[in-house]
Structure formats: structure tokens, C-alpha cells
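Annotated sample (chain length 77).
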Amino acid sequence: MAYVTFACGHKDEPNSSPDYISASAEATVRTGPEGDERPLKNAYATLAHSFALALAKELDCEDNGGLKPKPSLVPAA
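Output written by the structure step:
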């Protein structure tokens, strides 16, 4: 499973509080691959990031919600 949360500040209301939005990607299969799971985890993170970025653009969030064009695939500690 992967989560991406971003703050959506509205361009037309620069001093308003941002809305916080989360996007996630989750497997429906309960068994994982044998061996190295990192490529699968990176795929979920990339999917969640791509969806979050598209949502931020669709909602016209200021600075695309702070999301970069490419995901950071460094695991959170």
C-alpha cells in the first residue's frame, strides 16, 4: 500500500487554509511476490503519486499541491 497526502491551497484564495487530500494505491491480492518486494512497492508509490498529481492539477491546487513531477521513491523511516 502507498499513500500520498498533499495540501491544496486554492489559487483564487491565497490566504485561505489549504485542504489536505490523500491518495492511495492498495493491492487487492493478499499474497506478495517471492523475493525482492521493492519494485512492487515502488510501483504502488508511483501509482499513488501519479493519481495525487493528476488530482492536484484537476483541483487547480496552488503549485500542484507541492508535488514534484516525478515521485520520490525513498521509503519513509
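Annotation: Helices lie at 38-58.
Annotation: The first strand starts at residue 2 and ends at 8.
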